[in-house]
Amino acid sequence: MFLTRKPWAPALSAGALDLDGGMAQPDDMLDDDDYPAYTMGRAADIIGVSQDFLRRLGDAELISPLRSAGGHRRYSRAQLRLAARVRELCDHGTDMAAACRIITLEDQLAAALRQNEQRPSTD
């Protein structure tokens, strides 16, 4: 998998450059599922969990929030969706470590299926 650098990746402050050397546009960041737009408190409120729950997801290495210049965790919509999936599994009795592993395996399977669909047929 090839990762592309996001315009906001070098810093979360104003002045981040995009790949063409220009300024990152606010609309580009707001439409980007990977843009770390949410503080820990807001992220926890959105998905209905405690801040400790989000910290433990980081400890389990399911999500790695970006850190602001002040060291505060910032979460993206994609990370919030993962956290919500974990919460759903945990709400049904699955422990967090198992929930994280299930989600990781589900995502790996989905990626493998997409890759297989893109391969030309050998028939």
From TrEMBL:
GO terms for molecular function: DNA binding. SUPFAM superfamilies: Putative DNA-binding domain (SSF46955). Signal peptide: none annotated. GO terms for biological process: regulation of DNA-templated transcription. Residues 37-105 form the HTH merR-type domain. InterPro entries: DNA-bd_dom_put_sf, MerR-type_HTH_dom. Transmembrane segments: none annotated. This is MerR-like DNA binding protein.
